[in-house]
Design brief:
There is one protein chain. About 25% of the residues lie in helices and about 30% in strands. The chain is of the alpha+beta class. The relative contact order is 0.18.
């Protein structure tokens, strides 16, 4: 059984990020096929990346340790390029990318690296959680690609 994003964000350390997400998007965020989400933790902040496939947007909710929340919505039609980084890619194991780099028209580069979560929270080292985060990351990448007109 997988550890769903909703469950991972219900832990004590991530509950404030979950609350912010629900306030911004309602509970539908965790239940609708229109959204693909991924949380990324690092020492500076907790981030939730949300692709809305209908609106063609990428929203980044960032919560810093001092509890300041930042919401940024970026339009996916302004994406110039998206590069996936793989470590020792294996076709047989279908190795997921370890991070992606998204470049927008304004010259802004956004790096999404879910592996940093393992350094911040030991739960992310568990095989079950690690595999689910990788799956969520691949779904986020697919949703981003889906919203782009190629």
């Amino acid at each position: 059984m997988s550890i769903l994003l909703k469950e991972r964000l219900s832990t004590e350390s991530l509950s404030n990020l979950r609350t912010a997400a629900v306030l911004e998007f309602t509970e539908e965020l965790f239940e609708s096929d229109n959204y693909r989400c991924l949380e990324v933790l690092d020492s500076e902040q907790q981030q939730l990346f949300i692709v809305n496939r209908n609106d063609r947007t990428l929203t980044v909710l960032s919560l810093s340790p001092d509890m300041s929340l930042k919401k940024e919505t970026l339009f996916t039609d302004k994406i110039i390029s998206m590069k996936e980084y793989f470590d020792d890619y294996s076709l047989t194991d279908n190795t997921p990318p370890r991070k992606i780099e998204v470049v927008f028209m304004e010259g802004r580069t956004l790096l999404i690296e879910p592996g940093s979560s393992m350094e911040e929270n030991s739960e992310y080292k568990k095989k079950e959680v690690y595999e689910q985060v990788n799956e969520d990351f691949e779904n986020l990448i697919a949703a981003l690609k889906n919203t782009l007109i190629l």
